[in-house]
Amino acid sequence: MNPVIKYDPNDIVRIWDVDHPESISVGPGGEAYTTGTAGQVYRSDLEQNKAQQFASTAPRRVLGQAVDADGTLYCADAGSGKVVRITQSGEELPYATGPAGVPFMCTNYPAFDRQGNLYVSDSGDWSDEINGHMYKIPPGGGEAQLWFPEPINTPNAIALDAEEEFLYFVETWGSSISRIAIRKDGSAGPLERVLYLPRHVPDGLTLDEDGRVWIACHRPDSIKVFDPRTKQLDIFCEDWRGNMLRSPTDAAFAGPRRETLLVATLGNLCVHRFDNFGVCGMKLNHPKL
Questions:
Q1: How far apart, in Å, are the Cα atoms of 280 and each of 46, 94, 258?
Q2: In the chain, N or C: fewer CB atoms in 10 Å?
Q3: What is the number of helices (H) and of strands (E) in the chain?
Q4: What single DSSP character describes residue 128?
Q5: Where are the domains of the chain?
Q6: pLDDT tens for each residue of 153-193
Q7: Cβ(204)–Cβ(215) under 8 Å?
Q8: What CATH architecture is 9-274?
């Protein structure tokens, strides 16, 4: 396991020409995607360090995305309360709704398992009432089913571990990183809050090849790394001024070997890029649907 070495925020590289991106997703070849506040959908070329818009959901904004083996994006459409597909040619297609066709309150983030089931977080109404939920959509889409039976405090970004034993997620207003056990039959086990970050606003997360959780904290502006086995918490990068690292909201490992950490920034017109620090990300599931 490579140690977490603190990264100098002055060494951050930026991918410009994106409109306040909030999420990052990675395709089967290590290519990266993000979205903008006006419905833009961008594809990033890491070799050229450039992003290009190839689709739009305007006037609706989509948040998190998952990617299948063909490079089709499955986007959490917060505007319509659904999940939509975006093809590589930029075509938008419907994919899933809430149970009985009812819209989600705030569709936030999807993640595939190996069988092609799509887990989706619904953050609720972002009030002081705990009314978020976690859903599961069968391969091929359609109506989601409530997966975890109890309300959750503003579930945000989600990720499965390599063994698919846990679904990790951010509880943003709860200032926590939590996980739900995945039983052998695919049903939800108990919820466990594995890390509490008082006076923090965590937003996004991703896992590395050693099972550590990389956390994008919107406030204070920082990237933290948590090992669920040892309970060790490290700071990878922080910027109390919010100048070089501003409002990080999601993180994902991209590139052919998943050796580049990309971090979305809702507070800026760029994606933050971290290279050459000796850690690779966990390979994501890209099912053939």
A1: 16, 33, 5
A2: N
A3: 0, 25
A4: S
A5: 9-274
A6: 999 999 999 999 999 999 999 999 999 999 999 999 999 99
A7: yes
A8: 6 Propeller (2.120)
